[in-house]
Amino acid sequence: MSTPNPPLPEVAPPRVTPRSVLTRLGTLGPLLGLLALAVVATLLNPDFLTASNISNVLTRAAFTGIIAVGMTFVIISGGIDLSVGSLAALIAGSMILIMNSLKGSLGAGVGTILLGMLAALAIGALAGLFHGTTITRGRIEPFIVTLGTLGIYRAVLTYLAQGGAISLDLDIGDRYSPVYYGRLLGIPIPILVFAAVALLGGLILNRTRYGRYVQAIGSNEQVARYAAINVTGVKIATYVLLGVCVGLATILYVPQLGSATPSTGLLWELDAIAAVIIGGTALRGGSGRIWGTVVGAVLLVTIGNVLNLTNIISVYLNAAVTGLVIILVAFFQRGRR
Amino acid sequence: MQAIKRFVLLSAVLAGSASLSQSTPRQVIGVSIPSADHGWTAGVVYHANQAKAALEKKYPNVQIIIKTAKDSTEQANQIQDLATVNKIGALVILPQESAPLTRPVANVKAKGVFVTVVDRGLTDPKAQDAYVAGDNTAFGRVAGEYFVQRLGASGGNVVVLRGIPTVIDNQRVAAFNAAVAKNPKIKVLDAKYGNWNRDDAFKVMQDYLTRFPKIDAVWASDDDMAVGVLRAIQQARRKDIKFVVGGAGMKEMIKKVMDGDQMMPVNVTYPPSMIADAMRLTVESRVTGKPMKATTIIPSVLVTKANAKQFYFPDSPF
């Protein structure tokens, strides 16, 4: 026979039916969403594609993006952290106060700034350690622990600032500002740090034993325990990792405006969580992708940017547009579940 | 018999002490304000505490209780406690929001407490005895008039940053637009929300700079937002922007005006110290028995290099 026997239509084809095509498309959902948004944005305002605008957008995405990379680990392991915005504000305020007080003995030099950065990372790590320990050993829901610290951190910052602003010493600010405003090979430093964090996060999640443990715990904690995985240790480590990410994001944030106020980092936790979820990580844990999170973070910032670059939608409806895009992207991903 | 005697004696003592206290009436004044959650409210808390110290020193029979609330619900509970537990004779309140607090304030007033409302009016003016407020219309108008005068006959392109969608913000922006409309050469390119927040203002200004190749002046409409706007301009290294006007009188910005900063030539007041004025007027009227004016408007004035000194409070957090 010149023609081969047709395969049984009921058995083989389902693997290439629209459903599985949708599934594959679904994985690319956030990326397609971002591309669609970019096309619309360019049609509305050609300035969208200028190098300076793209660099603005990516720099803005760096703050919540770096936090979101850490958040991806926490969410994949089945946890959540609502406190990251407040923590960023507290770290920003504390590191400014520390650097200002160090100026007397160390001057406004690199040493002072490095110690400030170290303090930021340390505070972040300690906060993460506290979250992780209370959640695992104290057996309190992560939602509750971090809801509590969300209030605590911001209140402490507001207290330190007396409700006003904590401002960085001007001399230190001048020395420190290149960390935000500077460029390396023509690329703003926050973008480079964001890229490095994302790359490292991806490697840890997909190429190390630790990353596999995180995914195993998120998909079934009981089974992970039977498999002799140190569930408590791995979980605590995810919160510490996130705390360090928050510290890192704050290190980039402080030189931007040189001040911390009670409205610093407001709602960053929701942006970070939204970026993770848009990126295709399941809120109930078990599986996720770092690159998706990165795209999610950029997507969120782009929506705001596009709305600022155009005038077609009433300013009262900005939040509605953001909400709509989030739901649409999630809709295109639903094939995976 | 013994019991009745004791009872008579006790009531005589009580009556005596009551008449004694009537000769020097002790006044308890409750002050209910939003907690310090951004620069301006931090200034309110600061000035309220300053005024408490000064007034209690001046009038030894006056006791002032200050309560701060993070939202309307908490504030409603607090004024209820002030009336029932602390037995206040007068209440000075800066409501978090107008509508939800109108009923609770009316309830307190119905108990015989004298009520002074500050800044944000209630939806029913019958719930208050006196009203002390900043002038939001003037806040926008004074800034707009400065733009008209400064940009002159040649006019120019102006961008505006709005606060948070509220009645206050609408009044300010409408007054600003009306004032600059007097010069047809001034073009308001766009007005977007910066939420009275440094970070948001930074982003909005960055996007304005991307979108508009030539901007002559910026009305940031608030000093916190002006901080972000200045940084965005600095980062973009744009030289076309001649000046930025914030508002409300943050100490750092008043300092810039004092020092003759080119980018920050003026400021418009919307003083958080209005809470102190309201407290002083209320206490004075309670102590002297003279009625208080039903409405007191604290004017918004233009701060220039010449008069900046009198608006500079270096110790205030705002």
Automatic annotation (TrEMBL), chain A:
TM ranges: 21-45, 57-76, 83-102, 108-130, 142-161, 181-205, 226-254, 266-283, 290-307, 313-332
Predominant place of localization: membrane
Membrane topology term reads:
Multi-pass membrane protein
Q: Name one GO molecular function term.
A: transmembrane transporter activity
* Swiss-Prot/TrEMBL keywords: Cell membrane, Membrane, Transmembrane, Transmembrane helix
UniProt cross-references to CDD domains, sorted A to Z? TM_PBP1_transp_AraH_like (cd06579)
Show the InterPro entries listed in the entry. Answer: ABC_transp_permease
Protein name listed in UniProt? Inner-membrane translocator
Species of the source: Deinococcus aerius
From TrEMBL, chain B:
Note the Pfam families from the entry.
Answer: Peripla_BP_4
List the GO terms this entry assigns under cellular component, sorted alphabetically.
cell envelope
For this UniProt entry, the molecular function terms from Gene Ontology, in alphabetical order, are: carbohydrate binding
- Give the signal peptide range: 1-20
Organism's domain of life?
Answer: Bacteria
- Keywords in alphabetical order: Signal
Which InterPro entries does this one have? Peripla_BP_I, SBP_2_dom
Where found, per UniProt? Cell envelope
Cross-referenced CDD domains, in alphabetical order?
A: PBP1_ABC_sugar_binding-like
Annotated coiled-coil segments of the chain: none
Q: What is this protein called?
A: Periplasmic binding protein/LacI transcriptional regulator
Q: Which organism is it from?
A: Deinococcus aerius
